[in-house]
Design goal:
Layout (H helix, E strand, L loop, with lengths): L8 H9 L26 E5 H7 L1 H40 L6 H55 L3 E5 L14 H25 L1
Parallel strand pairs: 1-2
Helix pairs in contact: 2-5, 3-4
């Protein structure tokens, strides 16, 4: 019998964003507000993706939600899979011991097991699709919140380019171009204020 294990590839891809790459080049420690691209006339900054994923409260909260949904789905599928395995074992045992009153009875139980197996396959597909949709919602929310924040943040900072840095996708970047902590602090402040506004609306109801 096929072993039914819930696939979490979409979720694993998100969690992988939060992992640190030990091979990343060492940055210098000059502060971000000093000499940002003044020589070329272009102001450049970057945001560390791994730090964003592990310190932005929205990411931490949504990751917990995805983990819970993934675990619940896996437990459900494992339970249903065990029930199917028991039914198949029982059928085989009765078949070996001539436990069926007729051939029709054996065929009827076999068809029931096949339906049970099809139902399990459909359940697995549905749960994986639900997790994929949740993951997409998370990705869309993260991208939307980051873009809106940077649009407001950059009105004063006036950077020409803001890059995302993950692992060693940027081979070298001076630490003075790093605005990660500014971005995380700003995002968390807005995220918390959103919750406060929602709580006040609930209190008025």
């Amino acid at each position: 019998m096929k072993k039914y294990v819930f696939s979490t590839m979409a979720f694993a891809a998100i969690v992988a964003l939060a992992s640190c790459n030990n091979a990343a080049p060492k940055m210098d420690e000059q502060p971000a507000n000093e000499a940002n691209g003044s020589e070329s006339g272009i102001k450049i900054a970057y945001v560390e993706v791994d730090s964003l994923m592990t310190q932005y409260d929205f990411c931490k909260d949504f990751t917990l939600v995805l983990q819970k949904k993934s675990n619940n789905a896996r437990n459900t599928l494992n339970q249903k899979g065990q029930q199917l395995q028991n039914a198949m074992n029982n059928f085989q045992q009765k078949l070996n011991n001539n436990g069926f009153a007729s051939r029709e009875q054996a065929e009827s139980q076999q068809l029931a097991i096949q339906r049970q197996q099809n139902d399990l396959q459909q359940l697995q597909a549905r749960l994986e699709n639900e997790l994929a949709n949740e993951t997409q919602t998370y990705n869309d929310g993260l991208r939307d919140s980051l873009q809106h924040f940077l649009a407001a943040y950059n009105k004063d900072k006036k950077y020409d380019i803001i890059l995302t840095k993950q692992g060693d996708n940027i081979l070298y970047a001076a630490k003075r171009y790093d605005i990660t902590q500014d971005v995380i602090n700003g995002l968390n402040k807005h995220y918390k204020s959103t919750f406060k506004k929602a709580d006040k609306k609930e209190d008025k109801k």
